[in-house]
Design a protein that fits this description.
Layout: E1 10-12, E2 24-27, E3 33-39, E4 42-47, E5 51-54, E6 58-61, E7 72-78, E8 83-88, E9 93-97, E10 110-113, E11 127-133, E12 136-141, E13 145-149, E14 152-157, E15 170-174, E16 177-182, E17 185-190, E18 203-205, E19 211-217, E20 220-225, E21 229-233, E22 240-246, E23 250-256, E24 259-264, E25 268-270, E26 276-277, E27 287-293, E28 296-301, E29 305-309, E30 315-320, E31 330-334, E32 337-341, E33 346-349, E34 355-357, E35 365-371, E36 374-382, E37 385-390, E38 393-398, E39 404-409, E40 415-419, E41 426-429, E42 435-438, E43 448-454, E44 457-462, E45 466-471, E46 483-488, E47 502-507, E48 513-517, E49 520-524, E50 541-543, E51 550-552, E52 559-564, E53 570-574, E54 579-582, E55 589-593, E56 605-610, E57 616-621, E58 624-629, E59 643-645, E60 656-659, E61 666-671, E62 676-681, E63 687-689, E64 702-709, E65 716-723
Parallel strand pairs: 1-30
Antiparallel strand pairs: 2-58, 3-4, 4-5, 5-6, 7-8, 8-9, 9-10, 11-12, 12-13, 13-14, 15-16, 16-17, 17-18, 19-20, 20-21, 21-22, 23-24, 24-25, 25-26, 27-28, 28-29, 29-30, 31-32, 32-33, 33-34, 35-36, 36-37, 37-38, 39-40, 40-41, 41-42, 43-44, 44-45, 45-46, 47-48, 48-49, 50-51, 52-53, 53-54, 54-55, ...
């Protein structure tokens, strides 16, 4: 057995130059390794989110900066063409090409080959493996074989006469024979056969065996059965069993340095003898593939991403910075701090910092909230109580055994938690950290979800399709003046509307409550006493091209996320159509993002949070998180911290961002002669200028004056800006 030493984990720190408005960055977890390669002295790991490159330093590329998709399933370095082929679950293929393998990581020479993804077939399209055969790249997919030459798919065909959706799980070359692994056994054909496009030309071996992986080492073919049996032969006419016959929970075969490696769920065998690895000395162990790298090996791990082992036997995790997982169940922002929760762990992104993640002692997380009185403190609602975190460190857990669905702070900074299925559904955290339970017949035994506070009242989702209200009254310590109610979603106009599900709610800067439902958006305006009668909502009418007619905002979409930016505009996430930015009243659509027109990794947006300090909008999807730098931030009390960037503005730059403004500030820009070239009102605390004058022409080289003032005119400031053409 290898002697394993405990290494330091190598994490990529985040370089944080000022981000331009309108740009994107990824917040993926690069932990789900699927394939590993070695090229140009660097280890390259394909993960579900993107590629990791390691040569002593860690870099990454993803859909944000070089790839066309997410959900990577295969990767292959082709030394003959100097390319990395990347395959996806969707059937997409990217070809990353460069004369220098180290420059591939820049992602600037990516050619997307989408013909197979777009091909009409009844079978699944996932790319499983690549193989170079003479001047062709053979591609094993979940239903057919592809042949690629250059950047073009030249052929696609079935290799089985009874099933044109037969999964080809691996493909290798032994001598002049192409060998394909399938659930029905092995299929073989001579590489020079002109009839390989006809399934009758392929011969089947090991019939009835589900072969999941293949490898050729030292002239011997190895075939791994799904049950763990390892077959080997150098003669395709006469298969024999390798002496190491059974390896439980098998995953894949690899060849590294002429040695055969077998990855199983809990062991990594070298040459299939008694030599194996069962731990890296790191937090987990879940190997998939192995490649030779320098004087050691590199490993694609299903939970750790890229792991490298040096010649001394020490293991190091080479991982870009990111959250702990790609699936986010709860997301919250306060004061520039982003908290993202997976079902059992929490990740925190501090303003201008890097992600840090908890080694979880939590489970079934429902919601997260940052303490507005102490930004270092985060509260986590779970199915078994409320946890308190300092950063990502667990300080303690209260309300043990209570299924907490929603947590929120009132205007005084008191934390309230709402428990499902309980005779004591409301809990308030006192200043000394203890909790007091508050009975409520209206809320007892209900399933209580997400909560928000507005106009002295808590609003929440009584799952799946009702709302709850709770008010602690004038004195939180006096239960006698509390109020609570549960009610269905009803509209203020006489129309039929029945929400089957309520997914999200948020309070905007005017105290309105915005709901995301399975039938679009519903808005509740502030009322003096919401308990006096059942609150009535309204839908937002959107003008149409037909005079006199109107539609309702996203009425045919499942709206799964709602967030409010510094300009009181609404970011809306949907289950199937991506994300939308609407004006503060919801009537005008300002932006629309989906998988086709943006780096958004999925059209299923589960949560959205807006960084109030930088304007970055974090979209959590079912395939990971990405951030978009918007043009709205929270307003400041004065202009003391105003920032203008870039400054100077060089010829290649076309957008200027002015931040840290007073809320809704007036912004005017003139040349030194006093000629007005731009004016606007801030979105919360930010404004962007396209460096054009009022006639939509780029302004001339020179110094420009930015005049800032608040609504009253009592706060003002002048800032200089240099434009160079």
């Amino acid at each position: 057995m290898f002697r394993i030493t405990l290494p330091l984990m190598l994490l990529l720190p985040v370089a944080l130059p000022a981000q331009k408005t309108g740009t994107w960055r990824d917040h993926f977890a690069y932990t789900q390794g699927v394939e590993v390669l070695a090229a140009g002295g660097q280890a390259i790991c394909a993960t579900s989110a993107g590629l990791i490159f390691f040569d002593g330093e860690v870099e990454k590329i993803s859909k944000v900066n070089g790839l066309s998709d997410v959900g990577l399933t295969a990767a292959f370095y082709d030394a003959q063409s100097g390319s990395i082929f990347v395959g996806y679950a969707s059937g997409n293929v990217d070809v990353l090409r460069s004369a220098d393998p180290r420059k591939i990581r820049e992602g600037t020479q990516t050619k997307n080959v989408a013909a197979w993804k777009n091909f009409a077939t009844r079978g699944r399209k996932a790319i499983n493996r690549f193989l170079r055969v003479d001047d062709l790249i053979f591609v094993a997919t979940a239903s057919q074989m592809l042949e690629v030459k250059g950047d073009e798919i030249r052929a696609n065909y079935s290799i089985d006469e009874k099933n044109d959706t037969l999964a080809i799980q691996d493909v290798v070359l032994l001598g002049s024979t192409i060998v394909a692994a399938t659930p029905k056994g092995l299929y073989v054909i001579d590489k020079n056969s002109p009839t390989r496009y006809n399934f009758s030309s392929w011969r089947r071996k090991l019939e009835g065996n589900n072969i999941i992986s293949l490898a050729v080492a030292n002239g011997t073919l190895y075939a791994l059965h799904a049950d763990g049996t390892l077959h080997s032969t150098s003669d395709l006419q006469n298969f024999s069993l390798h002496p190491q016959k059974y390896l439980p929970n098998p995953r894949a075969l690899s060849v590294a340095g002429n040695e055969l490696w077998v990855a199983t769920k809990d062991k990594l065998y070298c040459n299939v003898g008694n030599t194996h690895i069962s731990s890296y000395g790191l937090s987990s162990f879940s190997p998939r593939r192995v490649a030779a790298w320098g004087s050691g090996v590199c490993i694609a791990d299903a939970e750790l991403g890229l792991v490298v082992r040096n010649s001394a036997g020490a293991f190091v995790q080479a991982l870009p910075n990111g959250p702990v997982e790609n699936e986010t169940v709860a997301l919250h922002e306060h004061g520039g701090k982003i908290v993202a929760a997976a079902s059992d762990a929490v990740s925190v992104l501090e303003n201008k910092g890097a992600w840090t993640s908890s080694s979880s002692q939590l489970s079934n997380i429902k919601a997260v909230k940052v303490n507005p009185k102490n930004a270092a403190e985060t509260f986590v609602a779970t199915s078994s109580g409320v946890a308190t975190l300092s950063g990502v460190s667990l300080l303690g857990k209260d309300l043990e055994g209570k299924d907490i669905g929603g947590i929120s702070f009132d205007q005084e900074g008191n934390l309230f938690a709402f428990a499902s299925g309980s005779a004591t559904p409301v809990w308030r955290r006192k200043a000394d950290g203890s909790w007091v339970g508050i009975p409520s017949s209206a809320l007892s035994s209900r399933t209580l979800g997400s909560a928000a506070f507005a106009n002295k009242v808590f609003w929440g989702i009584a799952e799946p399709s009702q709302l709850y209200l709770y008010s602690s009254g004038a004195n939180p310590d006096d239960d006698g003046d509390d109020n609570a109610a549960v009610f269905p979603v009803r509209l203020s106009v006489d129309e039929t509307f029945l929400a089957g599900s309520i997914y999200a709610l948020a309070a905007d800067l005017n105290g309105e409550i915005w709901l995301g439902t399975d039938k679009g958006v519903v808005v509740y305006s502030p009322v003096s006493d919401p308990f006096s009668s059942t609150p009535m909502g309204q839908r937002i009418k959107i003008p149409t091209e037909i005079a006199g007619q109107a539609a309702y905002l996203l009425q045919y979409e499942h709206v799964t996320a709602v967030a409010v930016d510094g300009g009181n505009r609404k970011w809306l996430g949907t289950r199937d159509a991506g994300a939308f930015l609407q004006s503060d009243d919801g009537v005008e659509q300002l932006r629309a993002f989906n998988m086709q027109n943006s780096p958004l990794p999925s059209n299923c947006v589960t949560n959205i949070a807006v960084n109030s300090q930088t304007g970055e909008v974090i979209f959590a999807t079912d395939k990971g998180m990405v951030g978009f730098y918007g043009d709205a931030t929270a307003g400041k009390l004065n202009f003391d911290e105003v920032k203008v960037y870039p400054n100077p503005v060089r010829p290649s730059m076309s957008l200027v961002t002015i931040t840290n403004l007073v809320e809704d500030a007036s912004v005017k820009i003139t040349d030194v002669s006093g000629n007005l070239v731009f004016f606007a009102t801030a979105n919360g605390g930010a404004v962007t200028w396209d460096v054009q004058n009022l006639n939509k022409r780029r302004v001339a080289t020179g110094v420009y004056l930015i005049f800032l003032s608040d609504r009253t005119g009592l706060e003002s400031k002048v800032v200089k800006l240099l434009v160079i053409n």
